[in-house]
């Protein structure tokens, strides 16, 4: 549920008749994408090309980032959103099959997570595992 602030103004128009002006504004939240950690990739002999997307009404993409077992991607991106945003994780082999992007999963972040500290979400398949750390402020 969105947080709304309502301001009531009492005024008189030209005809000296009273009326009320209602001004409503929504507060935007900030999704802070902090870090993506690679716990395991499907092929230890090469790097995985990874990227994230965020759909907050506007589509934003981050990456690609080359990752290996144990590596970290310090994303440090701030994305404004209202009510919710969808974060999706992808693994793309940029050298080979560009048309065969492996899509792992999505996670919905909601404004009710605001100021509840750092959160993590795992993006995993049978052969790979990544953990995203984020915060809502």
Structure explained in plain terms:
There is one protein chain. This protein has 137 residues and is mainly β. The chain has a single domain, classed as C2 domain (Immunoglobulin-like, Sandwich), CATH 2.60.40. 0% of the residues lie in helices and 65% in strands. The chain is built from no helices and ten strands. The strands form three sheets. It has a four-stranded antiparallel β-sheet with strand order 6-3-10-9, with no helix packed on it. A four-stranded antiparallel β-sheet has the order 5-4-7-8, with no helix packed on it. A hairpin with a 3-residue loop joins β4 and β5. The radius of gyration is 21 Å and the shape is elongated.
Summarize the model shown.
This protein is an all-beta fold and 137 residues long.
